[in-house]
Amino acid sequence: QVVPKQDGAAAELSQRLPVRVEADRAAHLLVLVSRGGAAPHLLHRAHAQRHAEFAAWLLATFGEATLQDGAGVLDVAGGGGDLAFELQCRRGVRTTLLEPREVRLDGRQRRFLRKQPPGHIGPYRHVRALLDEGFDASAAGAALLREASVFVGLHPDEATELIVDAALKHGRPFAVVPCCVFPRLFPHRPCVRTTADFCDYLT
Q1: Spatial strand order in the sheet of 73-76
Q2: Is residue 31 within 8 Å of 53, Cβ to Cβ?
Q3: What is the DSSP string of the chain?
Q4: pTM given for the model
Q5: Given the DSSP bridges, would you call strands 30-33 and 151-154 parallel, antiparallel or unpaired?
């Protein structure tokens, strides 16, 4: 286990179940994983490479068979879809991006897809919605949450706690890389001021 330099509050979290906490030394980012595996090695990678690194870690941690199960990976609050593209288009792991904003492939991604042979898996599925009670209560939303293989979130911001709660509710494995804690947006968790506090709260 690697713990943040500026805060030792995460040191004991790996002893708690069902969630284990690990951290990246440089960025002080904690990874919550619902089953075993090593933390992503992002120490010497450029910021733009984090999606590839996290995708590789997901495959190494959960295995391709697990990620491909059911409806495949559910990438929650995935922003521009870079992680979803990395998983599905580059690594062949079926992935659904759950993101309320409009997302378009950039030129580099379109060129990559044009070069692929016939029968390539193609672009990921994009569901424009928030992970909230309304989505969970809808027939389509409940089916997606129930059938997804693994819930993932790379810097999902406000959605981080929702991912953990939804994964536990539906009995799905999950992996999230928290970033901001937004204390003013979430007054129901006054003890959360740092990322380590947030992980402690989530467990």
Answers
A1: 20-23, 30-33, 174-177, 151-154, 73-76, 95-98, 125-127
A2: no
A3: ----TT--TTTTGGGSSS-EEEE-TTT--EEEESS--PPP--TTS-GGGHHHHHHHHHHHHH-HHHHHSTT-EEEET-TTTHHHHIIIIIT---EEEE-SS-----HHHHHHHHTSPTT---SPEEE---SSHHHHHSHHHHHHHHH-S-EEEES-GGGHHHHHHHHHHHT--EEEE-----TTT-TT-TT--SHHHHHHHH-
A4: 0.78
A5: unpaired
Q: Which pLDDT tens digits describe the chain residue by residue (203 residues)? A: 222 333 333 333 333 334 455 544 333 344 555 544 444 444 334 566 889 989 999 999 899 999 999 999 999 999 999 999 999 999 999 999 999 999 999 999 999 999 999 999 999 999 999 999 999 999 999 999 999 999 999 988 888 889 988 999 999 999 988 877 777 777 777 777 777 777 777 77
